[in-house]
Design brief:
The chain is α/β, with parallel strands linked by helices. The chain has 17 helices and 17 strands. The radius of gyration is 21 Å and the shape is globular. Bound molecules: S-adenosylmethionine (SAM) and iron/sulfur cluster.
Length: 415
């Protein structure tokens, strides 16, 4: 990487962090989810339960309890029915967690309800390796189009340090579970994490080779994200990071998947699939359901209640807060989420966001072009290999900052 690339890399990360702090200062009491002005949105549902917690994970979750979960799913379905009454429609559904398949029957009822109420054409879910048993997955045939399963690593030592060995089994056991599950639903993605402290190139290559041998339709490689919430826990179980090899690891990953189709900066497929890969990436507006879910509607970020009791008792309107953004920051956010899929169609972007990107983001684009992170061809902005790494870093920074926002609301629960 050149000197100017390193400079821009550090500068954009600092700028993104600064923008987060600035934008999340002015918190307002959440209004209601307004009647939609457009026809169709992306729907996000949050399932905040896991049997135990992993050391690195800052997602919003509670320890699973059957009774608690049943009550939760019931309240969730009420919130969904209310959106139908408000006039919303959705074409895509992303279910995230937590562990979304933690209670298969309740999830089944919820997905069936969504399909019956809205024009949903594709559903993606996340799971852990304990909830991918073939007989359970078959229940979701025709409902779930893509299932991503968190594996994180096939290295027993890393699995122990992330507290996953005890829950999900050794590398050998994980391979058996995955072999039985892959092929039941149309798209199966294996999620891996790279850049664990003390990880070396050989460890990473081994993880990639094992994942490849299992032949899933998709492999996603996330860089380890350390937020305020998880930093200490990660350092406690892994020790301090002596040398950060993130860029070298990312290059290794890109070389390894040369023969694959790259869906976005961190996801690779055997064939290019048309499903939405990151829920923020293709849909500039989405509506979140469930405790701790975010919605992005009419240039506002809306926040649902985190605390389960509060979420259930709130009735029709589950919002506890909202944040407004300046037009320029929204354009920057949309630019980040679109270019993350490797290229951006200039005319479509201008039409979608009623802007002239070359004028509105002229400085940002000049810097990215000058440092060869991005180039223009056939009315598209296209990322270079270094550019893909830059946007992995920025997306990582974005998620880490969202963890801080979640931590803020969780602290409100604790006090
Ligand atoms: C919300 S988790 C749910 C997955 C499922 N509960 C599991 O653990 O298998 C979705 C994925 O995000 C990724 N992830 C979670 N925390 C991360 C972190 N701190 N850094 C990088 N990736 C992370 C993991 O690959 C994980 O599988
Ligand atoms: S990684 Fe998955 S299983 Fe582990 S705590 Fe996070 S959501 Fe739960």
């Amino acid at each position: 990487m050149t000197f100017s690339q390193k400079l821009i890399l550090n500068g954009t990360q600092t700028f993104l962090n600064y923008k987060f702090k600035q934008n999340f200062k002015a918190i307002k009491k959440g209004d209601t989810k307004k009647l939609p002005s457009k026809k169709s949105y992306m729907m996000y549902i949050h399932i905040p339960f896991c049997h135990t917690f992993c050391t690195y994970c800052g997602f919003h979750k509670y320890i699973y309890d059957e009774l608690l979960a049943k009550k939760y799913f019931q309240a969730l379905r009420e919130e969904i029915k209310n959106a139908k009454e408000l006039g919303f429609d959705f074409d895509t559904l992303y279910v995230g967690g937590g562990t979304t398949l933690v209670n298969e029957n309740e999830l089944l009822k919820t997905l069936e309800l969504c399909k019956s109420l809205f024009s949903i054409k594709e559903i993606s879910c996340e799971s852990d390796p304990n909830h991918i048993k073939p007989d359970k997955l078959r229940l979701f045939n025709g409902l779930i189009d893509r299932l991503s399963c968190g594996v994180q690593s096939f290295d027993d030592e890393f699995l122990k340090k992330t507290a996953r060995y005890q829950k999900f089994g050794s590398s050998k056991e994980l391979i058996k579970k995955l072999e039985a599950a892959i092929g039941i639903l149309p798209i199966f993605s294996i999620d891996l994490i790279f850049n664990f402290p003390a990880q070396n190139e050989k460890d990473l290559l081994k993880d990639l080779q094992i994942a490849q041998k299992l032949n899933p339709t998709q492999i996603t490689t996330y860089p380890l994200m350390k937020s305020k919430l998880t930093k200490k826990l990660i350092a406690k179980s892994f020790g301090k990071d002596l040398v950060d090899k993130e860029f070298e690891f990312y290059k290794l990953i890109q070389d390894f998947f040369k023969a694959y189709q790259q869906n976005n900066c961190w996801s690779f497929s055997l064939e290019k699939n048309s499903l939405s890969d990151e829920y923020v990436s293709y849909h500039n507006e989405y509506v979140g359901f469930g405790s701790g879910a975010f919605s992005f509607l009419d240039n506002k970020l809306l926040v649902n209640a985190f605390d389960l009791n509060e979420y259930e008792s709130l009735g029709e309107n589950k919002l506890i807060a909202e944040f407004d953004f300046k037009r320029k920051d929204i354009l920057r956010y949309n630019f980040l989420s679109k270019i993350f899929s490797l290229e951006l169609d200039i005319d479509k972007f201008n039409e979608n966001f009623t802007c002239d990107i070359k004028k509105d983001l002229s400085l940002e684009l000049a810097l990215l072009k000058f440092s060869s992170f991005l180039f223009e061809r056939d009315k598209k902005f296209i990322l270079s290999d270094e550019g893909k790494y830059l946007f992995v870093l920025l997306m990582k920074e974005f998620y880490t900052n969202m963890d801080t926002v979640r931590a803020f609301f969780k602290e409100r629960i604790l006090h």
